[in-house]
Structures are given as structure tokens and as C-alpha cells.
Amino acid sequence: MQGYAVKDASRSIAIAGIKHAEALAGRLSSFGAVPTARPTPICLGATLEQLLEQDQADVVSRRLFNGVRVEEEDRHDTFVGLLEGA
Q1: How far is the C-alpha of 16 from the C-alpha of 32, rounded, in Å?
Q2: Residue 59 sits in which domain range?
Q3: Is 71 within 8 Å of 16 (Cβ atoms)?
Q4: DSSP three-state, residue 58
Q5: What are phi and psi of 36, to 5 degrees?
Q6: Model pTM?
Q7: Cβ pair 18, 77 in contact under 8 A
Q8: CB–CB of 75/11 below 8 Å?
Q9: How far are the Cα atoms of 16, 59, 63, 70 from residue 75, in angstroms, in the given order?
Q10: 3-32 pLDDT, tens per residue?
Q11: pLDDT at 58 > cutoff 70
Q12: Virtual torsion, Cα 23, 25, 31, 32, nearest 10 deg
């Protein structure tokens, strides 16, 4: 395993993690959320059907989380590749 490869991968992964955190914080802020150490319970929809409908309607959050998931899978693949090359 090459030190420079790990350093470069770690740097890009850390930057991606910061971007994910900023994107998630921005999305939460768009809902008027205020950062807190003690989150309040989230109650959406009076019925399961309403909850699922609201969840399906939130396309922006879905795209955000999917993008984070894809980038995290790429990060995992990078680490696996670095370990395999060791």
C-alpha cells in the first residue's frame, strides 16, 4: 500500500464527507431546523399512509441521500482497492 495513495484518498474522502455534512445541514436548514444536541421527536402524518405519502413526495431529500449513498459506496470501493493493493 502506497502512503501517497492513502493520503490522497483520505483527503478526497474527508472533503467529500464535509460536503455531505454541509449538504445535509443545508437541507435541514431549508426545513427551518435548528441544530440541537437533543433532537425532538419527528411526527409526520397521522396514519401510515400519510407518512408514506409525505416520504414519497420528498424528492429533494431522496436525491440528496441517494447521492450521499453513491459517494459513500465509492469511498468504500477506494478503501477496498487500497487494501487489495497492499
Answers
A1: 24
A2: 3-36+43-84
A3: yes
A4: coil
A5: -150, 150
A6: 0.53
A7: no
A8: no
A9: 9, 24, 18, 9
A10: 666 677 778 888 888 888 888 888 888 888
A11: yes
A12: -140
